[in-house]
Amino acid sequence: MRRIAALVGLWLYAQEKPDSLSTSLDTVIITETLPAGTAFGEYGVEKLLKNYRASLPVFRGVPFAQEISYQGLLPQQTLINIEGMQILPACVDNMDPVPTFIEPLALENTFSPGWGTRGVTPTLSAHLFSPEGPREGRAFLLWSSNYHKWIAGIRERRKVGKLRYAASLHFREVGSLRVGMIASHQAHSPWPRDTLLRLPSGRKLNTYTALTYSLSSAHTLTAGYLGDFFYNIAYPPLVMDAQHSTMQLSYLQHKWKDISELRLYGSIVFHDMTDQKRPLSEILTREIMPGMYMPMRGLTRTGGGYWNLRWWKSTTTALYQRIEYLRSYATASMDMLPVNGETPMRLLNLAQIAGSQLGYHLAFHYEANRWVLRSEASIERLHYKVRDTLEYLPLALYQQAYGEGSAEQSTLPVYRLALEVKRTGPTHTLQASIRYGLRPPTHHELFGYYYYVPMYNGILMGNAKLRPEQMLRSEVRWTAHYATLHVEGQTFLNWIRDYIMPQTFLQPFSPGNHTPQAWRILRNHGTALTTGATLSLEWQVFSRTFLYGYAALMYGEHINLREPLPWMPPMHAQITASQDIGTLRPLRLAAQVEYNAAQQRLSRTIFSEDFTPSLLLVHVRFSYPLFPLGEQMRLLLRAQVNNLLNTYGWSPLSVRNMPVLGREFRIGLEGVW
Hints:
Elements: H1 2-8, E1 79-82, E2 107-112, E3 123-128, E4 136-144, E5 148-160, E6 163-174, E7 177-178, E8 196-197, E9 202-214, E10 219-233, E11 241-256, E12 260-274, H2 280-285, E13 292-293, E14 296-313, E15 317-338, E16 345-368, E17 371-386, H3 389-402, E18 409-424, E19 428-439, H4 443-447, E20 451-453, E21 458-461, E22 469-481, E23 485-497, E24 500-506, E25 518-524, E26 527-542, E27 545-558, E28 563-564, E29 572-581, E30 587-596, E31 615-628, E32 634-642, E33 664-672
Parallel strand pairs: 1-3, 21-25
Antiparallel strand pairs: 2-3, 4-5, 4-33, 5-6, 6-9, 7-8, 9-10, 10-11, 11-12, 12-14, 13-15, 14-15, 15-16, 16-17, 17-18, 18-19, 19-22, 20-21, 22-23, 23-26, 24-25, 26-27, 27-28, 27-29, 29-30, 30-31, 31-32, 32-33
């Protein structure tokens, strides 16, 4: 009873350019921009093209605590998996999105979709470094002058008899960072120009291994493991730092030619955040819950499997099915430790949420006379249950008072219908797709309790009575490929009904809320749409001169509120030029310019956004082969200067206007065999 009273008392007191362009209709490549520190050894200067197509460019000064927004949708409206395996993060502050678990050396370097899952939720699937393929080895060691101290990695793929393996190891050490100095604008940011943030040393280790054994000419068995571990990662925009986090994923796969693929997998994600290493002066004066430490921990276990089966295949048609099952368990807690020695308290942000998902998908494929048609239908059942009903009681009271009611269980049947058409000509390809169905809310949206959201300095509550969003998604893509030029354009439209958004139910310092934050609960409200267009090109200007370009425009609107959707940036563009100099040992030079227009269409009701000034970044790189080490081996010297002009600024996705890294020098060696 004492714990219940304390919790309820919170009412009154107290979140590479691809090797080949895929013809998949939904393919998207998501990487960091150069200031964020893409893997030095993995991406050569000839692969500087950052083709986000319909995704939102990701600017981040550090490689953590930044989620992905796809086609102007919010992060929770997009599912990112690893080769069809769902990974559910554990951090309620969004400091462990799935892309942070995969270092580029463990990646085939492209995000492309598998089957649609979780209804019509846009699904991006990361493909890991596969044991299948030619022998390959690569290693690099890099020193950096700003934030990243050391980055090192190695990967290899080889065949030994009937056994193939692929493995990678990646390490990075980070420390203090300095933001840029030169700015042509005056906009509010808590970090002045040329600020040096003295951060403690943090480390991140990523390891990946996959073994494939040929049982026969038709059958293979693959076992894989991906582990990601990081320690003492400071992130100034948030109110606490990641003390220790880990993700471990194991899987076993049986494959029968291209007829059947059966995979079983399990993962565990643990996230430990703390503010106990922050200065006492910061704890006493911060915006959220001043005067107390509030370490937070999250644990999520996921296990499941899927079976892809081709029922039949003729010269023009094929029929495929996919059966998928998933079970999950998630819990997250926050301690409240007053610095004055008063009695500590604990609440559960997730009160031990057990979930399950069962889905059946059927797809028909037709291909003839340069036409390709693919249709898909799926139905799924998702079920969530609160296992600790005692800790759920405080949230239930808010849901009953300010939501549509409370429930300790939620069952969500969802469906998806999709049609894709492609016409291929000698030099041009035209693709179109349309998808309709339901996007179910996540377990965070249903049962998350007392999240602090720094994007708008508010406290968020989940809603167990949320309805799935109805989504209609359409895309059209056109490509043209000539001897020295490749051009691609795309346009998309997402229409969303029963849009899930936070609504304020207690204003700051209102009766029942003694905090300076607004208290908000998720509700279904009205209709929203996002639309946009992208254009990219790759041009071999001369025999040794290359030009890459990309531009994107996005627009989002909540129709009922008549205001822009949040995280909706204006035009983004980048252009990269590279030149080879010399013959026997060619020196490769590259320069890139990135531009983000100022963001002036601001969300006011959903999120309280502020003005984001325009941002222009310039980067230069070069690589030089020191000497060959044999027919297949070589050693290269690589160097780069990111943010050459030492520009000061931030992007629309920056949490609390956290600036991008200032000028950064990098130099290192890369060996390839």
